[in-house]
Structures are given as structure tokens and as C-alpha cells.
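Question (not urgent): is this output format expected?
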Amino acid sequence: MTTQTCYMCDAPSTSVEHVPPKCLFPDPKDLSPEEQSLDFKKQLITVPACHEHNGKKSTDDEYLFCLLAISLISGKNGQQQGITKVKRILERKPALKTKVLEKATPVIVKDTETGQIDRTIALEIDHNRINSSMESCARALFFKEFGQRFIGDVRISNHFLMDFDPQYNEKVDQLRQIADELFKNIEPKGENPTIFTYKFRIDEKNPNNLLLEMVFYEGARAVAIFEGTQTKA
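Got this back:
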């Protein structure tokens, strides 16, 4: 019997890693009353993982989940979890609550397309922590899709974060538009589309040019750029 190795390293697998992290998927009690009979955990994606690349990153996964769920551009299932599951997690884990809410600043945000005004808070974001979790998701999806581990660099472009700097927001908006064009003709994958979908894009002229779009809660998007040609079974 062949021992499977971790999706991230050469260590033998000791468990499975959910992609994206299982904490992103709502339990019935975290849904609105009209949706509590629905199953949003159908055929969750898993890959073999060692302890280092599964159990030890659970706090980072919860940090990512909190930010995705409370993002203004997340869909209703994200927003709903923001007032249920996120609240429970932060009450249970004071250190995580401090990390998420430190330097929180009340702000008013106006949607430039609809004119809608929302009162919310601006947070100081740990970009390295978010990118680390997103990179793990991207590498795991590569393993699932191609049956082997990716060896090379993975760069993450998050399109769900906003800033007080209008130039930053303008750049993110431009990246969103580019991603819309690149992925528009590719069918999304994922059995729970209101929670998570993904698309791989391979450039026919340059097969080593591989991109991955991940969409959380129908609105929060990140794009992974795979740099390198080596893979390892």
C-alpha cells in the first residue's frame, strides 16, 4: 500500500485538509431561517495533508474566514455568518478577536454604482496571514485538479480588500476587470457555489502560464498566479 504524501511537502499525510477550510462552510444554525434545511457542505474538497500543513494553521483559517464573511462584497451567506459564526468564534478566542478588531475604525462606505451607503468598520489587515491561507488553498486545489504537488512560487492577488487610499482601490478594481475578462468563458467548479467556486485557466499559447480564480460567498475573489513549471507526484 502506497503512503500518500502531503499536498504541500514530502511528509506522509496524517489527515485530510478541506479546501477551502471547513470553517468557511455554514452549519444550519448559522443560516437564515428560510435556508436552514439546505446543505452547504455537499462533496467538500479534501486533499492529503501532514500535521504541519493542516492542524497548525487552523487559527489562520479562522482569521481568513472572519475577514471574508464580514467583507462588504460577500454574498448573503457570508454576511449571515458574520453575525452568527464569526461572533461565536471571536467570543471563544479572545486572542483572535484582538487580532481581527485591533485598530478598528468606524467608517461610512458609499457604493459608487448604486449610491447605497453602509456604516461599517475598517480593520488593519495582516496581509501575510491572508496570503498564506490563500496560497494553501491554491496549492491544495492544484493537487486536487492535477493529482500532484506544485513546486514553485504562488503569488496571491486579493480582490476583496479595500483601503483608505483611492489609488489602491483603483488598482484592485482594475485587477478585478482583468480577471473578469480572463475567466469569463470558464465554467466554475464547486458543489456549493454560494459558498465557494474556483476556475483554473491555462494559456494555450503558454501552458506553463497557470492562473486560478477563487470566489468566496459569491463576491470575495482572489486570484493565484502559479510561477514555475515543476511538479512532483
